[in-house]
Design brief:
Elements (H helix, E strand, L loop, with lengths): L19 H4 L6 E5 L4 H12 L3 E6 L2 H11 L7 E6 L5 H14 L5 E4 L17 H10 L3 H21 L1 H9 L8 E5 L14 H23 L6 E6 L9 H4 L6 H8 L9 H13 L7 E4 L3 H4 L10
Parallel strand pairs: 1-2, 1-4, 2-3, 4-5, 5-6, 6-7
Helix pairs in contact: 2-11, 4-6, 6-8
Protein name: Short-chain dehydrogenase
Keywords: NADP, Oxidoreductase
InterPro entries: NAD(P)-bd_dom_sf, SDR_fam, Sec_Metab_Biosynth_SDR
C-alpha cells in the first residue's frame, strides 16, 4: 500500500541519497559467498569487491579459489577477495568456515549461499514414450542417493549455513553499527519455479523449489522474531556456468536466433555478469525487501518452450 508523498522521506529529495553510489553502497561491508570461486558465485564476489566490500569466497577446492582471488581482485576501491577452503555441503565444513571467519570478523553484512550441484539424470525423452519404457528409464537409472545428495547440497546446506552465520549477521547492526543487520541471499533457479522437468531434471528442479520455499520460511521466521535479518532468493535462467553448455554453444549476437530456439529464451542470449550483478545489488541493498524471489531469465519462464516427444527423441 503506497504511503502519502509527504511521508516518504522528502528530506532525501534533492540530496545525494538517491545517487547510484549511495543507493547501492557496500563499501566497508563484509561478505561471505559460498561457491565463490567460479560461475555466478565469482560474479557476485567480484562485483561486491569491486565496490569496496571485503569478500570471503569459499569452496571445496583451494586452487580455484586462489586463482579467482588473484584474477578477479579489484585493482582499486579497497575491496578484497579472500579464499577459504571449506565444504559447505557438510555441517563440519560449515562449522569450519564459520570459525575461520569468526576469528577474523566481528560481523558480516551479507551471506550469499551460492554453492550447488547439478547431477546427471535419466532422460524421459530418450526412450520410447510408453509406460513400460518410461518406467524402466526413470526407475532404473535414478537412485535415492542421487536425489538425497542433490538435496543435501542445494537445499539442506543453505539451512545450516544460514543458522550458523545468524549471530554474525545480527552483529552487523549491534556491533558494526550499520543501519540494519546482515542479510542472506540464496541461489534458487527458474528450474525451481517451472512446471516442466526440463527433460528429466526432476531431482534438481525439486530441490531448487525446496530452496525457494526454505528462503521464504527463513525470511518469515526471522521477521516474526524481530531479528530483521532479510532473506531473499535469486532465480537465474540460463547463464554460462559449469552446469550448462551455453558457453560452448553460444558465442555472440550472431547466434541469437539459434540460442532463442535451442534454449527457449525470448531475448535470444544468455545472461551475463552485468545482468546478474545488477540484480544482486538490488536485493542485498534494499532494506525493505525480504522473502522475495527475483527471476532473471530473459523471459524463459514466460514461454517455457520444451519439445515434447510424440514417440522417441
Amino acid at each position: 500500500m503506497a504511503d502519502s508523498s509527504h511521508s516518504l522521506g522528502r528530506s532525501v529529495l534533492g540530496s545525494d541519497a538517491l545517487s547510484i553510489p549511495k543507493l547501492f553502497d557496500v563499501k566497508g561491508w563484509v561478505a561471505v559467498v559460498t561457491g565463490g570461486g567460479t560461475g555466478l558465485g565469482l560474479v557476485t564476489a567480484a562485483a561486491l569487491a569491486a565496490n569496496g566490500a571485503k569478500v570471503y569466497i569459499t569452496g571445496r577446492r583451494l586452487e580455484p579459489l586462489e586463482q579467482a582471488a588473484k584474477e578477479a581482485s579489484p585493482k582499486q576501491g579497497g575491496g578484497q577477495l579472500i579464499p577459504i577452503q571449506a565444504d559447505a555441503s557438510t555441517k563440519e565444513g560449515i562449522q569450519k568456515m564459520k570459525e575461520i571467519i569468526e576469528s577474523k570478523e566481528k560481523w558480516i553484512n551479507v551471506l550469499v549461499n551460492n554453492h550447488g550441484v547439478s547431477l546427471g539424470h535419466a532422460n524421459p525423452n530418450a526412450v520410447e514414450q510408453t509406460p513400460e519404457a518410461l518406467s524402466k528409464e526413470m526407475f532404473e537409472n535414478e537412485t535415492f542417493d542421487h536425489w538425497l545428495d542433490a538435496c543435501r547440497i542445494n537445499t539442506a546446506s543453505y539451512y545450516f549455513t544460514s543458522f550458523a552465520f545468524l549471530p554474525l549477521l545480527s552483529a552487523a547492526k549491534t556491533v558494526g553499527n550499520f543501519p540494519e543487520p546482515g542479510n542472506i541471499l540464496n541461489l534458487g533457479s527458474v528450474s525451481g519455479i517451472t512446471k516442466t522437468s526440463q527433460k528429466g531434471q526432476f531431482s534438481y528442479n525439486a530441490n531448487k523449489a525446496a530452496t525457494i520455499s526454505l528462503s521464504h520460511q527463513l525470511a518469515t521466521e526471522f521477521a516474526r522474531r524481530d531479528l530483521n535479518v532479510r532473506v531473499n532468493v535469486i532465480c537465474p535462467g540460463y547463464f554460462p556456468s559449469g552446469m550448462s553448455t551455453i558457453e560452448d554453444e553460444y558465442q555472440g549476437s550472431s547466434n541469437r536466433e539459434y540460442f532463442k530456439q535451442r534454449w527457449g529464451t525470448p531475448f535470444g542470449r544468455a545472461g551475463n555478469a552485468v545482468d546478474y550483478a545488477q540484480c544482486i545489488f538490488s536485493l542485498i541493498s534494499n532494506q525493505y525487501i525480504t522473502g522475495a524471489e527475483l527471476v532473471i531469465d530473459g523471459g524463459w519462464l514466460l514461454v517455457q518452450r520444451e519439445s515434447f516427444p510424440s514417440k522417441v527423441v
